[in-house]
Every structure is written in C-alpha cells, then in structure tokens.
Amino acid sequence: MSLTLPRWTSTASARSPEGFESFYKDVRGRLLLQTYALTGDLHASQRAVRDALVVAWHHWRKVTRLDEPEDYVRPLAWARAQRRSSARWWARREDVDAEARATLDALGKLSGTQRKVLLLTHLTSLPVDRMAREVGVTRATAERELQTASAQFALHRGVPSAAIRTVLEALAPDAGQVRWPRPSILMRAGSARRRAHTTIGVVVAVAAVALSGSLVTDAAGVRPELASKGILDGSASPTPTRAPAPPPPPPDPLTPEALLALDQVVGAYPGQWTEGTTSTNTEGDGLVFTCQAHRYADTKGIGALVRTFTAAAPAASAPKATGPATVGQSAEASADVTAAEKTYRTTVDWYAGCESPRVQLLATRRVVGVGDEATLMVLRAWNDPATTQVVGVARTGGLTTTVVDTRPAPKEPGAEPPDAVLESSAELLATAVTGLCTLPDHGECAGAPQLEEASPPPVGRHPELLVEADLPPVPGVTQPWVGTRASKVQDNPAATRCDKTTFTEPGVTGARTRTFVIPDAAELPPEFGLAETTGALPRKQAQRFVDDIRSSLDGCTDEVFGTDVERLAQEETGPRDLSVWRLTVEVSEKRSVRYLMAVVREGNAVAQLSFVPADDVSIGPAAFIALAHRAQERLGQLTSP
C-alpha cells in the first residue's frame, strides 16, 4: 500500500475522539516516512510526529475545519524533526540497510530547499502552488529547485527519475521498527497542553477583572452580588481543582541582534569582511564547523542561531594572508542553567576530542573573566591546504556560544599561533558573551579576558589515554590515525626488549592500553603504529616503576646484543617525570629497526608510550617528545588508587 498519496478527509464525526484516533492512525506512517527522509534520524522523526499530533489534538476543533488537516500537522512535524535530528545519524547505525543508507546519502547531498520540494512532490499530493508556499519560495523557484533536486538525486542514487518515488517509499520503516503510543496518550498530552495555555489566559483575564471590578461598587461601597453568594467571606463551597498542568517550555531568548556584528569582527581582525547568513541551523546536515559532531550540542534546547563572516581574498600580488579567512559564531539557549552546563561540556568535548580526520589539538587555554566559564582551543587541520582553527567556547547563564576563526597554517608543523592571535580570539569571545548579556537568560558577563595555560579537557570513558586528536600528522601520509578501543592490560604493547615492562604487577590499578594505526595507508608496514599503556600505583611505587625502566634502558646497550639506546629527553620536576629514548635494534646483518619510547609519571599515575616507524616514514623525535608531554597532561585524569 502506498504511504504517500491517500489523504485523510474531515467529516462531522471526525471532530470526536474517535475521529482523531482515525486521523492519527492514517497519517502517522506518511508523516514518519517524510520526516525520516528529511532528516535521516528515525528516533527524532518519530518524536516529531508524535509531538505534532499532540498539538493537533490541542487545536482539534480548528484542525477539523480545514480542508486538509494533514497540511496543518505536516509542517509542525517537519520543523520539529529538523530541530531534533542528529547529523548523519544513519551513518552510525548498523541496522540501516545498504539501500536505505544510499537513499539517505543521496538526499543528504541536496540543499534543504531541494530536499523539501522533492519530498513534497513525491511523498504528498500537494499541487505545485501549495508546495511552493509551504517551502516559502515562488512557484518558479520551486519548479527550478525540483528539477535540480530530481536530477541530482537520480544521479547520486543511481536510479532513473521515474523511480524516485519508489525509492523514497522504500525508506518507510517496517511496522515492527516503530512503536506508536496509544491515541489516548496523545489526547491526554494535548489536553494538558490546552489546559496550560488556558491557565495562562485565565491568569491574564482574572487580573483584568480584578482591576476593573475594583472600580465597580454600589452607593454603600460594597459588592452585594458577590457577597450574597458567599464569595467575599469564603462561605461558598470551594470549586474542585485539577492538578496543575506542566508548564510550557520557556520562550526562545536568542535574537540576531545579540550575535557578533560585522564591525566587531573587523575591529578584532582588520580587513575587508562580508557578513554571511544568520540562521537557526536547520538546513543541510547542520555541521557548520570542523569537529562539530551534531547539529546542536543541546538537542532539547529552546533556541539556536548561527552566523558566519568571510574575509576578502588577498590579491595575487599581495603577501600571503596570516589573519583568519573565516569567522563563525553559534549560540544555543538551554531550558535552564544545568542544561546549559551540559551543553558547554558537550561543545568543549567536540573540539578537545575532535573526530574529524587529520585534525590535531595543539593547545588549550582557560579564559578567565569571560562568562561563567570559557575555554580557548587551538586546532590544526592537516588537509591541503592546512589551516589553524582557534575555537572559543563560553557559557553565560543558560546561554552557550562558540566562536571559531580559521586561518592558513604556518609552515612549521605543530607551531602554535602567537600570543597576540590568541588574545584577539579571546577578546572576540568576550565580545560575543557581552552580546548574549543583552538577553534575559544571561549569567556572568565579560571583562578583560585573561588566558591561562591548561591541560586538554578530559575526553571519553578513559580520559587518561591519548585520543586521535592528540597525534601529529605523518609526513607523506594523508590517511588519518585510528585508535583501538581502550582495553584492560594483559600484554603491554608499549614495552621494549630492553625493559619488558608489565602493568599486571601487584599494586597497579586502572591499567588500560590502546594502540593507534593508519589502516588506510596500504604502503605502511603492519608494525607501523603507536601504543600507550597507563596505570596507577602508590606514589613511591610509581617512582620506583619509572626508575626501573630508566635503569633498564641505561644498561640495555651493554646487556642486549644488537641494541643501541640513545636518551633524547629527561625531565624531573617534583611529582612529574618524563624520559624519551630512541632504540635501534639489529634484526639482520643488513637491516635495523629504529623506534621511539617514552615513560612519563604524573603523581602516582604512569604511562609508557612507544612508536614504531617505517624505514622512511616517521613522525620524528621532536613530534614524539611533544606527544609524550601531551600523554603526561592526559595522565593527570587517572584516578588515584
């Protein structure tokens, strides 16, 4: 049976609860297919359809007077699905079959307007004029976008244009995949929503009556009609009251005027800038910035805005630009401060543990004096051309904002931007918070920002371990690092033939290990990669642990035939230790293997790190020493025994 063309029609009996039940059962499948095709997020789509139908029951008398009640519900469901959907949700689900995944991928390559006109054309029976009106464009624009969308979808999906409707209808989830609530549950929710709205109206009306009634008295200055009914003296029987309805969600406080303005960006980074679009970020996949994992950090938020700015390209004869090429700001409003705190942490996690390929976290700064909490992070995207991102995240009350500036990367690998650049970024973040402080939901505002060095924010279930975003690029290799899942230690893959260190001895707690490889680089040998093992010990035992490894490495050249050991770095400062060696091992008369190993201690937590290069492919000693320092920073997250 087709899920697209049948339409529910209103009758007199349709205004009854039975009529709503019939409407609910008839339209929910079509609306779910449409919202699923629009967003690719089945869970968000089902919730959106459910909530839209709750609103329909709230206004059921008005809805049933419409010629096409379904046309009232559909825009509500579509808007809610886009607001709640996670970007490329289907790409992470194993239960999405290949055909559906291909269809969703093809839809994802269309613009938001193209996707809407395509779905309205093939999954509804709307005429072109009404379809254009629902999308918010002219008929000519709708026809042009439909023609482009049909051609692009057919090309990306590999089907003829005549098969588009069939392919889209095949997305319909199986009945077994979806569990719908009973109609009575939706009607109760809609009735509660109606009572909540009525309560607000009654409060306003009572206030008006009280004001006007205080001016109406008889000659004696009393109100005999009210007194005769026992209302003034409280003798009348109390009217039964219902339990209070849940309060409606707070209104969206965000306004475009609260975001960064063009002159503020020019003030921070002098030059010719163009202000781009300002939107609620409901179009496309919603991924505006590199490392952004989802459309919104707060999927239950009450508002969101995004604005972008672009610098004019320099003339060919001009020196290479060093300032930012783009600046962007996002702002999210949460329902309360607790939700905003979680939104802030989620946003920081996106960048501290960036999952975008070949993006490295270079530095982290704590920003003091800006909002309730603020962090600045520097990232390097190693694609061609390489770019540097300075990302500022701040929270003030129930509002969270992110400011990202992207600029060409310096030639020196791993080089951080100068302090002046970070200070400019911090000042622009402070300006963004000042703008949000014009809104009612703000908390602490911004003064002169002060930057303090900070360890990278904790990421994941085992924040003491390195993540992909910590690893430097491998010269000549364009494929990304991939880390294995952290596991309990049985064998220590970071040990060398000199120390043979284990993390299973008595006293070691919380031991975990993880390895990193580049699986898509077919030219690299299988042994190429990085391994890290961590654990915690009582303080004195942790110091002995490090001393024993150092002693083993110092004597290895004499004691292990065919092994040469060179110490590259050693640092000892109170509770912190760091040592790095280069080992060369003869595996035959004509071939030697050279690799790098480090041991670090942070208080009572210890880690061993080893890197095995290929003959002519390596990250180099300097990058490995920097990585050992990052491992030491992460190690501070290991819980003490």
Automatic annotation (TrEMBL):
Composition skew (Pro residues), residue ranges: 241-254
UniProt-annotated stretches for the region Disordered: 230-256, 317-336
InterPro entries named among the record's database cross-references: WH-like_DNA-bd_sf (IPR036388)
Bias kind Low complexity: ranges: 317-326
Gene3D superfamilies recorded: Winged helix-like DNA-binding domain superfamily/Winged helix DNA-binding domain
Name this protein carries in UniProt: RNA polymerase sigma factor 70 region 4 type 2 domain-containing protein
The species this protein was found in: Nocardioides anomalus
